[in-house]
Amino acid sequence: MLDESGLDGMFRTARTPRRWTTRPVEPHLLRQLYDLVCLGPTSGNCSPARFIFLTGSDAREKLRPALSAGNVNPVMGAPLIVIVAHDPLFFEQLPYLSPQEDLRPWFAADVGLSEETAFRNGTLQGAYMIMAARALGLDVLPISGFDQSAVEDAFMAESGWRANFLLCLGYGDLGSLPPRAPRLAFEQACVVVD
């Protein structure tokens, strides 16, 4: 179990930045991030998430036209941008990822099931990346305000992957953040069924 300091860093005192310091994200952290993310559970170990790390100015400029106006500055200022995507044909990897079960035919024969599974589990893996980034001392800004088709055309035309959301990673300038926004109480958001 994480100690109080660990829980603070992951949840209680972690904040979502809107501005970034100039400190870069060290290149070795990309592999460390993925090495943690890939260990999180997915159904049948399907692991459909795919991650595109944008580190250079050319990649950022390719992304810029796809961003909604309010997201341009926070995204373009981030030291590292990750496109969280999923592979609709994730099931082609199932003989390797889940060799004890013959799961590939289920998904290959049912487009609806495979799309739902890829989106749900890819989103879950994107959330693992948020937690992994925080565990490694990075701040995270998730972004959903962008043109999905434009991002896919610019970065995934050959792979056929589907964009889900963006993660901006780095070291946030947290000094001017307003107080944390309210959250729903347990009684408002949870039901316990016996």
UniProtKB/TrEMBL annotation:
InterPro entries per UniProt: Nitroreductase, Nitroreductase-like, Nitroreductase_HadB/RutE
Gene Ontology molecular function: any one: 3-hydroxypropionate dehydrogenase (NADP+) activity
UniProt entry tagged with the keyword NAD: no
Gene3D superfamilies cross-referenced by the UniProt entry: NADH Oxidase (3.40.109.10)
Residue ranges of domain Nitroreductase in the record: 14-171
Key words, A-Z: Oxidoreductase
E.C. designation(s): 1.1.1.298
Matching NCBIfam families: PRK05365.1
Protein name: Malonic semialdehyde reductase
Species: Acetobacter garciniae
Lineage, top ranks: Bacteria, Pseudomonadati, Pseudomonadota, Alphaproteobacteria, Acetobacterales
